[in-house]
Amino acid sequence: MRRDVFQAIADPVRRDIIQLISKESLTINDVAEEFDISRPAISKHIKILNECGIIEIYQKGRERFCKIQPQNLLPAFLWIEQYKKLWEDKIDSFENYLIELQSKNKKNG
Predict the structure, then answer these.
(1) What is the pLDDT of residues 83-96, one digit of tens each?
(2) What is the pTM of this model?
(3) Most CB atoms closer than 10 Å: which of 32, 39, 44, 106?
(4) Are 49 and 55 in contact (CB under 8 A)?
């Protein structure tokens, strides 16, 4: 089964792993130490991220390191970006509605 970037970012633990590894390459043990779940569970998440191409695992000495592959997050970014304007417009509209309500309450208060 070929996994994709959307499967990678669907899980909050995997999103946290992505964020962690985006700052610096870390060993699998270093990643596991940051979470309150079992090392096998972290390994499974890392395996999924690797299958999706979000992280690369490389060997350095006896350690296995995880390195972010940010270009592979691009499809998700582009998909989300297309809805940005829509949500910004809706949020602006809601904000204007709240301002209008506040001004009515001040006039009637």
Answers:
(1) 888 888 889 899 98
(2) 0.75
(3) 32
(4) yes
